[in-house]
Amino acid sequence: MRGRGSRGLAGLALGLFMVLPVLPLVIWSFAHGWRFPSLWPEDVSLDGWAIALSDRAGVLQSFGLTALIAAATTLIALLIGLPAGRALGLYRFRGKGLVALLLVAPAVLPGIAVVFGLHGIFLRLGLTGTIAGVILAHLVPVLPYVTLVLAAVFSRFDPAFEDQARSLGATPLQCLTRVTLPAIWPGLLTAALFAFLVSWSQYLLTLAIGGGRVQTLPLLLFSSASAGRNDVTAAIALLYILPGLLVLIITARQITGRGAALTGGIGS
Amino acid sequence: MTDRRRIFLLLAPALMVIGGLFLTGLGLTLLRSFRYMPALGLTDPDLAAYVAVLTRPDFLASLGFSLWIAAASTLIAAMLALASALLLRQSFPGRAVISFLVQLNLTIPHIVGAIGVLYLVSQSGVFARLARAAGMIAAPSDFPILTNDPDGIGIILLYVWKELPFITLILLSSLQTLGEDHEAVARSLGASRWQAVAHVLLPMISPALLSASALVFAFSFGAYEVPLILGANAPKALAVLAWQAQTEPDLVARPEAMAMAVITALIGLGLLLATLRSLRHRGLHAR
Amino acid sequence: MTTLGLAGLCKTYQGADHRALAGLDLTVESGTLTALLGPSGCGKTTAMKLVAGLLRPDAGDVLLDGRSVLALPPERRGVAMVFQNPLLFPHLTVAGNLGFGLRMRGLSPREIAARVEPMLERVRLDGLGPRRPVDLSGGQQQRAALARALILQPKVLLLDEPLSNLDPGLRDEMRCLIRGLQRETGITTLIVTHDQAEAVAIADRIALMLDGRLAQSGAPEDLYRRPATAEVAQFFGGVNFLPGRVAGGQFHATFGRLALAEAGLDREATVTIRPEAIRLGEGPNTLTGRVQEIAFLGTQSRVTLDLMATTLEALVAPDVAESLTVGQEIAVNLPAKALWVLPQP
């Protein structure tokens, strides 16, 4: 068909643009010295990776800590966001617009406005510099995403299934675990993966609340970038991308529809 | 249990978290911006911090700088995203791979992209090496300064790269929801392919484009870590300037940091609300 | 006035395992309203989109007055299509929607307004021009969609199930409007429907599509009374198929002999008779049957009869059915004029 070739070319340009900033990271992570003006590293080595993965660098511990924080944040956000999403998705009630706005606001408002006040509160509660404090703080940007995704999921869920299950003898708990959760499972999974990634990417909140004592991966990455070892920094940066890549592969089959609907949910 | 009670109970935990963390945090920021800090003996709220901030030349420069970054990034990203969405909804060889890369980009943290851009377009970056190999420059200093530059070119480049997929996926989702029937109707009513795009498709996806762009603007206007890595010493982006003021040893400078944060948030919020209003005014919703 | 011709149209969708259209031939005579009838999924909408130029056929041709229009893009075919959903453009007013096609042609706003006003009036939307489509009721939206196509005075008008999303009351109203406008303008019109009653009520001619092919076309009465195949008869609600043999102007079946109105060649054949044509009582062509079941259907009752192991369904007035009991032996009259010998066995 006419135009397919030019479309392919435009697609190629788009794809190239998408990977452009990642390419130097890949090359740098295998470079042992890559001085200007060489187009290619003089020496290819695994030094950067070796240092990044060594015990001394603390990258792996930091990776684990970041994952722990993200997983805990996700779990709490799901427990809180599930009922809220149900209320927003299934019911019409007075003040719904306001509630929705309030629940979305933390995701769209610049974080800098909350971070200072939050720091003040957490200081008084003794939560600064603690992992628990960082997890709580991460709830602020994560909960809106979870609530919105689940609200969209519940708006397509017919609660008559629950009535049907109850009339067939299911207890409320059985009803939840055997009917409701299986029905919303794909949406729940997407919400969870999304929540994990949002927490995983946090920088400012962790810096402010953790006060440098909770060294998540982005904080470590930043100090490494400032320290000037490009090969190590590139290796850490690539490690940092890994979970996102994994999430994408898990959801790849459904993402064109659902994944886009996720991001679309923020706008509505 | 009545519906009202049930709804309240369902919403209560989320509202408590948002109220307890977000609103309280916001409120405390606000109080301190009015110089209400009993611990420091400041018990009479006033607007002195705002007056001080609004007369600081570095703040005004930062405000202009952040507005410039946000406006330029949003405009370029929105236009490229529109083209990308129109491209990706059609079939062409390799579309699946390109779609995957666009989605992959969405999962990459900003800070990684920022470091990548640094290695790409700095004076000793990949592009500078390519320019040298092509004989266009002799030394790194001949390459234009694109990172940590006063015009924020590196920051804008990063935001365009990072937000293009976000807007693209929102547009694709909107296109998918709309289906192709409206265009088909337009064609059968005598519209050419481009007339159908211009007179039917664009107006119909413009609410999605507008709201996605507003989100991108609000984000790039108030974000911290990207200008931290790619920004110049002066002018600093608003969030960077506010953070710096907050970490100054002099506690009395803190209200100014708070005032900067409040102004940043207000501008972002104002833009979002204006977008929402204009969408409502046109009788259309974001989706 | 334009004659529309479809010649051997074939279309298989990418990834589908069967052909949506398997060689469709159809002629829509100039100035007529023809119904393209068929069960859902038989390829009717695909045929429409091929005519409109919204899809390209794998094989075959679309002809307007004998000339192929396949090379023309949709906007230059002079074919306007109204979809099942009104699909009014939400960002335009009702008047803006009606004027859309004229605007695409480059007419001035004044010319457009001059043609939109009378059209609004004609479909009883006067005064609603400045409204948004969302403010219109379902029926009003569908009328606006119809007007939006008619205002272009197309050579051929395609209507894809325009009544299916309307309430029964509105459906009658819309049907009258379509019929009236078509008679007034004389535009060659093809209307797609899956409802045989609707097709019979609205169309000059019916083309019945089954499995991507034309099964039969003709006046509504032809398809109703003289179906070409058992499938056509079944689609029009015929349920009684009697196997047997035509010989000497008579039909020989296991349960007896029946006189036929028209004598054909001697052969094995299937005869159909519509349930409402069967009478209970004496007369020519009478057989004896046993009452198997009686079902009250409201205005009529269905009596299931057993004629020596052949089952027959008859629709009779409820008071007739009331006098019957299950197991009773009665006289069943099959009028010769109502018996139709299917052309193919």
**Overall number of structural domains of chain B:** 2
CATH class category label of the largest domain in chain B: Mainly Alpha
Strand content of chain B: under 5%
CATH topology of chain A: MetI-like fold
Shape of chain B: globular
**Overall geometric form of chain A:** globular
Please identify the oligomeric state. Answer: heterotrimer
Q: What proportion of the residues of chain A is helical, as a percent range?
A: over 70%
Mean pLDDT of chain A: 88
CATH level-4 homologous superfamily of chain A:
MetI-like
Structural class of chain B: mainly alpha
CATH architecture of chain A: Orthogonal Bundle
Number of separate helices of chain B: 12
Beta-strand content bin of chain A: under 5%
Following the backbone from N to C, one meets helices and strands of chain B in this order, namely: HHHHHHHHHHHH
Which blocks of ≥5 consecutive residues of chain A have pLDDT under 50?
255-268
Number of strands of chain B: 0
Characteristics:
heterotrimer; A: 268 residues; MetI-like fold; 12 helices; B: 287 residues; mainly alpha; 2 domains
